[in-house]
């Protein structure tokens, strides 16, 4: 049996133990942080639900911190404050991987376990990454676009260049388009602002004189804005593939303006992430031992893939029903 499987087995045993002994293992002073940007959007509210649920089961304190807008520098400041609080562990989503590297390294050097979720910072000393295989998510969306466009046409992409998870998604789309006649005409930086996505989408029709056949949105805030513009402009027959599953995005699928969206699992990322942080905190693992952490017999995986699902009209109602049953209507996504 591999050490990775042994580690996951220990996590599972720990989860079962929590069910019987509750929070006896934990001190009331134990506190864990989730650090991100855009903390108020549905995606991160969903992640916060998973984070708080795990915290409640463990009997530990939890806090979700970061700016309420896309601001990597403000996220760095939030991470620094979290590190200064000397918590039991930190989950962090890296809006810009390079911006957070030194602070992640400083936290680990201080003995604080750090796990990245959603968007990775792999060049630093974070212990592992939990999230979507973003390249494969891009391939998934790209293959659908190829089918819907019959292998030809011009598309524009709405994204935030430099954010690792989004860049990986774009690479997946490019791979899916490689042997087709589909051309990515422009990659638009929405800068984390839905109004920029809306305004840029309005410009596209005139700029390219209606020759754009498809719209690809690599993060959650773009899809619904592009859908709004296409409906206002009366643009028919355009392919639009979105990302994530907030209520507006799902409603645009129901209306037939968005063809499909790719659903991630932010609840699961944060839920599993806190359970793993807690296990690391109580195991007293040497966070400076690279052989133990990253060698061929490492006790940790480098990546936990939480999966992704394509949602369209055919499975929309089932997705909503399952989501609501599982979360008491607490989960909408980014």
Helix and strand arrangement:
Layout: H1 3-21, E1 31-35, H2 42-58, E2 61-65, H3 72-84, E3 89-92, H4 97-109, E4 114-117, E5 129-131, H5 134-148, E6 152-159, H6 164-177, E7 181-189, H7 194-207, E8 214-217, H8 220-233, E9 239-243, H9 247-255, E10 260-263, H10 266-283, H11 290-294, E11 303-305, E12 309-311, H12 316-327
Helix pairs in contact: 2-10, 3-4, 5-6, 7-8
**How many domains, as an integer?**
2
**Structural class assignment:** alpha/beta
Strand proportion, as a percent range, falls in 15-25%
CATH fold title of the largest domain: Rossmann fold
Q: Rounded to an integer, what's the Rg over CA atoms? A: 21 Å
Q: What's the overall average pLDDT, rounded?
A: 89
Number of helices: 12
Would you mind describing this structure in some detail?
There is one protein chain. With 334 residues, the protein is of the alpha/beta class. It folds into two domains: 3-132 and 265-301, 3-Layer(aba) Sandwich (Rossmann fold); 134-263, Response regulator (Rossmann fold, 3-Layer(aba) Sandwich). Helix content is 49%, strand content 17%. The chain has helices at residues 3-21, 42-58, 72-84, 97-109, 134-148, 164-177, 194-207, 220-233, 247-255, 266-283, 290-294, 316-327; strands at 31-35, 61-65, 89-92, 114-117, 129-131, 152-159, 181-189, 214-217, 239-243, 260-263, 303-305, 309-311. Strands 2-1-3-4-5-11 form a six-stranded parallel beta sheet, with helices on both faces. Helix 3 (72-84) runs parallel beside helix 4. The longest helix is centred in the first third of the chain and has 19 residues, at 3-21. The chain is elongated, with a radius of gyration of 21 Å. 48% of the residues are buried. Residues 1-23 and 330-334 have low confidence and may be disordered.
């Amino acid at each position: 049996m591999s050490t990775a499987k042994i580690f996951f087995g220990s996590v599972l045993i720990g989860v079962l133990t929590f069910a019987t002994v509750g929070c006896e293992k934990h001190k009331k002073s134990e506190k864990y942080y989730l650090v991100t940007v855009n903390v108020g959007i549905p995606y991160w509210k969903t992640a916060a639900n998973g984070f708080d649920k795990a915290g409640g089961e463990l009997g530990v304190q939890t806090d979700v911190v970061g700016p309420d807008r896309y601001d990597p520098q403000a996220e760095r400041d939030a991470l620094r404050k979290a590190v200064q609080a000397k918590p039991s562990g930190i989950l962090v989503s890296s809006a810009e991987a390079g911006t957070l590297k030194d602070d992640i390294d400083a936290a680990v050097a201080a003995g604080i376990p750090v796990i990245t979720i959603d968007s990775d910072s792999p060049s630093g000393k974070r212990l592992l990454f939990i999230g979507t295989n973003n390249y494969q998510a891009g391939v998934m969306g790209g293959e659908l676009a190829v089918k819907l466009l019959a292998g030809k046409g011009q598309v524009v992409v709405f994204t935030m260049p430099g954010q690792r998870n989004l860049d990986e998604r774009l690479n997946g789309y490019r791979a899916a388009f490689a042997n087709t006649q589909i051309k990515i005409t422009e990659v638009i930086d929405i800068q984390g602002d839905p109004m920029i996505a809306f305004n840029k989408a309005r410009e596209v029709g005139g700029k390219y004189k209606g020759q754009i056949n498809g719209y690809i949105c690599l993060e959650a805030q773009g899809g619904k804005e592009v859908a709004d513009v296409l409906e206002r402009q009366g643009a028919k027959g355009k392919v639009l593939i979105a990302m994530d599953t907030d209520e507006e995005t799902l409603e645009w699928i129901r209306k037939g303006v968005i063809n499909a969206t790719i659903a991630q699992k932010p609840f699961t990322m944060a839920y599993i992430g806190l359970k793993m942080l807690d296990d690391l905190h109580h195991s007293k693992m040497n966070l400076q031992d690279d052989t133990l952490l990253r060698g061929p017999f490492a006790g940790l995986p480098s990546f936990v893939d939480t999966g992704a699902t394509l949602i369209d009209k055919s499975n929309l109602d089932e997705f909503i029903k399952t989501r609501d049953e599982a979360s008491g209507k607490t989960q909408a996504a980014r």
